[in-house]
Amino acid sequence: MSDTPAKSPQPVETSSAAIRPGEVPFATDASADGAPHVTAAQDYDAVLLAGFGGPEGQEDVIPFLRNVTRGRGIPDERLEEVATHYRHFGGVSPINEHNRQLRQAIEEEMRARGLQLPVYWGNRNWAPYLEDTVTQAAEAGHTRLLAVATSAYSSYSSCRQYREDFARAVLETGLAGVVRIDKVRQFFDVPGFVQPFAEGVAEAVRGFAAEGLTGGQVRVLFATHSIPTADAERSGPRELGLGDGGAYAAQHRAVGRQIMEQLREEGAAEETTAWELVYQSRSGPPSQPWLEPDVCDRIAELPGEGVQAVIVVPLGFLSDHMEVLWDLDEEAMEAAEQAGLRAVRTPTPGVHGAFVASLVDLLEERIHAVPAADRPHVTDLGPWYDVCRPECCENVRRGFSPAAAGVAP
After folding, report:
1. InterPro entries, from UniProt (predicted)?
2. Which residues are annotated as a binding site for Fe(2+)?
């Protein structure tokens, strides 16, 4: 594949008003037919790493939180309550530095495989913004972009909103019809994403065993970000019928189950070491139902169940986001101390070699249109879709906005 920029296609009329149901707007030729998994190879110009964004100093915190909550009318006084979490760490979220490291690691792995595509990085809520990044790519002649969003699971905020970000970026910059954006599948169950979590749980189990804590004395809590239950029910294609919590909860449960079954088969965990899925970081009003149970609430209940040690696994996170550093390392560990429990938080994938390799595998499977049957996955839910289905991950409050990389509802 040549690294010489291809000639840009001529612009065509593509606006939000022009998008028709059943279309895949802003897609490359390989993805435009809307099939769940692509069957035609595609020559991409560049990779687009899409992040959430985060503040990098005290003066950034409130403007960043205004971006995160845009359109919700939340006053600065309430934002300052959340800002204290960032201010505790000098006003710096680790997420931007992580994405710099991840971008470099992806580039290095690609070069080692002979892939010469440039990797661009853009955020939803802080610089570098996606609109600027897409403009920069187009100016360099890179108009067929293959995106990797820094979130592994299916839900509005972790998948569809990134696809809306891509659509907004091309519409607001006037690049609709020039820039095409596809997105790799959700990677919750690719081997390289799961492996770092499994390694962390195994190490924690060994550590507690050395202290004489084994079996039912130890509980594994797989933690992820809570979301409104109404959004969770709409995560993933509705026809899958995945039950309470939709695809979002089902995917997390499947990965947690796979990790524990793997460790038991390897002798790294006992059959009596129980596990469960818990949630954290809810931010909605008390009147709005969100996914439960809360991690701290469950920790407080565990001593009454004979548990003496808890392993908290940040299963919903790629790296040590603020929600990990504050909600788990601070609040959950404090809850464990108050409950008289020994506690450890396991690592996130970060730039673990297996994780980075799996991300580049995802890029290559789209470039070469690897058949779905040959794609690696460790749960029965995978491999997930290349092109999101028409009603995937609706935001119940806002409905469907224009989105790339999926069939329009």
Report:
1. Ferrochelatase, Ferrochelatase_C, Ferrochelatase_N
2. 225, 323
